[in-house]
Amino acid sequence: MDKIIGLGNALVDALAIIEDDNILTEMQLPKGSMTLIDEDKFLKISEYFSRMKTHLANGGSAGNAIRAMACLGAGTGFIGKVSNDFYGNFFRDSLLKHGTEADLLLSTTLPSGVASTFISPDGERTFGTYLGAASTLKAEDLSLDMFKGYACLFIEGYLVQDHDMILRAIELAKEAGLQVCLDMASYNIVEGDHEFFSLLINKYVDIVFANEEEAKAFTGKEPEEAVGIIAKMCSIAIVKVGARGSLIRKGTEMVQVQAAPVEKVVDTTGAGDYFAAGFLYGLTCGYSLEKCGKIGSLLSKDVIQVVGTELQAAQWEKIKEEILLIN
After folding, report:
1. What is the C-alpha to C-alpha distance for residues 257 and 291, in angstroms, rounded to an integer?
2. Across the beta sheet with 125-130, what order do the strands follow?
3. Mean pLDDT (the chain, rounded)
4. CA dihedral 238, 240, 245, 250 (to 10 degrees)
5. pLDDT digits (tens, 9 = 90+) for 161-220
6. Are 153 and 52 in contact (CB under 8 A)?
7. pLDDT tier at 125 (50, 70, 90 boundaries)?
8. Could you count the other beta carbons within 10 Å of the beta carbon of residue 287?
């Protein structure tokens, strides 16, 4: 089975369920988005969270996806940057616990990053992300040896603000013979750096993951048309359409996969990351595009029924059994 390495913001998620969305307005956080925040706002949110019941879990888009793949039994690695503090040690220990090779660089200038996650009554999640040490990962930190032994590099779109670092990572990955996967991450990130996303997808990226808002921000089109446009730029395009499932296109092959039914959505945090994890795991196993999509849907269904992105060991065993039964 091929090994996959993730490149992303090494973040710990601090999750809290809110009774209404007033706090989002107060903190100027658009509902459903990921907004980068400074230390002052992070401290204000931390003070708010101190009065609530919160849950800690490893986060970051690539971190979530890599951890899920590791739990399925895939060979995984992760490149990121933390500080030698509580959150940095929490992140490292979680990766190692699941068998991921943790290539974590240390920052001596900023504390480890934290994604403050507000879970609305309808299950929608909104992130106020303080990158901290994660933001200090630079092009010069990367080396060819980090990518050797892997078949695929998974990059989260949240990293695109540092163009030099992303291009360096892709250059090294291609030199080492890896395919490159990009998750668009958030519609506001795509809107803010559209030209660079276009460059990456047209020239370097092999597999693109987007939800319908991100796909529309990138193409200006609805999902059915957007997936075709993106597929002309890369090898495989996947557009997730929420409760309606996903659209997958490779060349002239078009597949629509229905979402797995869910009685109650508790928290949508990690839904897209887990879909990507299931899909890429399927690819490493040599499964069809349809089965890859079904595995992605299976993982998404399970993670949106818990708070955060941690599933219990028994649940992972059940998921593995269900994967074997998928046609």
Report:
1. 9
2. 34-36, 125-130, 113-119, 11-17, 55-59
3. 93
4. -10
5. 899 999 999 999 999 999 999 999 888 899 999 999 999 999 999 999 999 999 999 999
6. no
7. confident
8. 17
Residue pair 293/246 in contact by the 8 Å Cβ criterion:
yes
Give the separation between CA 270 and CA 125, rounded to whole angstroms. Answer: 9
Tokens of 77: 């690695």
Strands (DSSP E) contained in the chain are 4-7, 11-17, 34-36, 55-59, 76-83, 101-107, 113-119, 125-130, 152-156, 179-183, 207-211, 236-240, 246-250, 253-257
Neighbours of 185 (CB within 10 A): 26
Query: CA-to-CA distance for 288 and 310, rounded, in angstroms?
Result: 27
Residues 180 and 208: their CA atoms lie apart, in Å, by 9
Length of the chain equals 327
Domain boundaries, the chain: 4-325
SS3 state of residue 122: coil
Phi, psi of 183 (to 5 degrees): -100, 125
Q: Write the burial class of residue 97 (CB in 10 Å: 0-12 exposed, 13-18 middle, 19+ buried).
A: exposed
- Write the CATH number of the domain with boundaries 4-325: 3.40.1190.20
Alpha-carbon span 184 to 189, nearest angstrom: 8
240 secondary structure, DSSP code = E
* 254 burial via Cβ count (<10 Å: 0-12, 13-18, 19+): middle
| Distance (Å, whole) CA 176 – CA 174 | 5
Could you read off the pLDDT of 80-123 as tens digits, one per residue? 999 999 899 999 999 999 899 989 999 988 999 999 999 999 88
**Three-state DSSP class for residue 116:** strand
Closest alpha carbon to 46 in 129, 135, 121, 134: 129
- Residue 104, beta-bridge partner list: 80
Residue 293: which of 311, 309, 277 has the closest Cα?
A: 277
Rounded-to-integer distance, Cα 228 and Cα 249, Å: 7
Give the integer Cα–Cα distance in Å for 126 and 249. 29
Tokens of 44: 């204000």
Residue 268, pLDDT above cutoff 90: no
Please tell me the pTM assigned to this model. 0.89
